[in-house]
Design goal:
Elements (H helix, E strand, L loop, with lengths): L6 H7 L7 E6 L4 H12 L3 E7 L1 H11 L7 E4 L3 H13 L5 E4 L4 H9 L12 E7 L7 E4 L9 H17 L6 E5 L10 H14 L7 E6 L1 H5 L1 H6 L12 E3 L3 H14 L3 E7 L5 E2 L7 H23 L1
Parallel strand pairs: 1-2, 1-4, 2-3, 4-11, 6-9, 7-8, 7-9
Antiparallel strand pairs: 5-6, 5-10, 10-11
Helix pairs in contact: 1-11, 4-5
Length: about 300
């Protein structure tokens, strides 16, 4: 499994000195989700509020010899109620971050996107994997590999903007966005190449801001500068991207998991475009990836705190 390469630790160093983000943890009723929340709390990244059946949470803590002293628990009967109540805590201003526990992602996201009482904004909600790949010199983002199945061009505008804003909260001054397809030339036979070209033009016209876009790019010339040179691609993005925009969910999800299981990468996960950052963890995630997800959420919260203070 993933061994990592120290880049997550550099990311977490950006959190030094920041006040922890109060985080509503929905249904942390297994060892991995409860341990992840409590570990992040001990590191000063989050201040967890555990939302779920109190008896079950305490039983998991006893079994794992986890300390709950001083941790707030909001008692609700089941996972569905936990998702709803955790979202309510965010809406009431009692929490700055939402975190997935041991409930299904669909169950949590149903509460997030609910028309009444949810956490929607004017932006399309999207997911980002933050990848620490030992053979690549920096953490980079793959989006969207978990929420938007077949995004339209308009969806991709928000997906890209969400990712750019995330990268900027991690102190990337001008995030470089590689828009992926199967080829690097524009052809009507592959619609994602046309959308890539349109996104680049939209960035030129100010419809996407804060990043440098290029595409379509095939994965090899997106990630490897020599491959780009071989194909005659002159680009400030090719070979040095901070963000990889996948053409659809299947491509993004497959790419992230291939890197995790074949290239010893760690993949932290976070949902963007809602009122607050949403930490999505999996039982397969390493402790490093879980901690990194919390650190990313804290940096996003800090960026929002800073904007409010201006």
């Amino acid at each position: 499994m993933a061994t990592g390469s120290g880049k997550y630790e550099q990311l977490l160093a950006l959190c030094s000195g920041l006040a922890p983000a109060t985080t509503a943890v929905a249904h942390p009723c297994d060892s991995s989700s409860l341990t992840g929340a409590l570990d992040a709390g001990r590191l000063g990244l989050i201040r967890p509020i555990l939302v779920g059946p109190e008896d079950k949470i305490r039983a998991v803590a006893r079994e794992g010899k986890l300390e709950l002293a001083g941790v707030r628990i909001v008692d609700v009967p089941h996972s569905h109620a936990a998702a709803t109540r955790a979202v309510e805590l965010v809406r009431a201003g009692e929490a700055e971050v939402l975190m997935k526990g041991s409930l299904h992602t669909d169950e949590l996201m149903s509460a997030v996107v609910a028309k009444e009482g949810g956490l929607r904004t004017g932006r399309r909600i999207s997911h980002a994997f933050l990848m620490d790949v030992p053979t690549y010199p920096k953490v980079f983002i793959i989006t969207d590999g978990a929420i938007n199945i077949a995004p339209t061009l308009e969806d991709k505008v928000d997906i890209v903007q969400n990712a750019i804003d995330l990268a900027r909260s991690l102190d990337v001054a001008l995030p470089k966005v590689a828009i992926l397809s199967a080829v690097e030339t524009v052809t009507s036979k592959i619609p994602s190449t046309i959308e890539a070209a349109a996104l680049c033009k939209m960035a030129e016209r100010g419809q996407i801001t804060g990043g440098l876009l290029d595409g379509p790019l095939a994965f090899d010339n997106a990630i490897n500068r020599e491959a780009a040179r071989t194909k005659g691609i002159r680009s400030d993005v090719a070979g040095d991207p901070d963000i990889l925009l996948a053409p659809d969910l299947e491509a993004g999800n497959s790419l992230a998991k291939q890197l995790t299981f074949l290239a010893n990468a760690d993949s932290a996960g976070i949902v963007l475009g809602a009122r607050v950052p949403i930490i999505l963890t999996s039982r397969a995630d390493s402790v490093r990836a879980r901690t990194a997800s919390c650190g990313v959420a804290l940096r996003m919260v800090h960026a929002r705190r800073r904007m409010r203070s201006l």
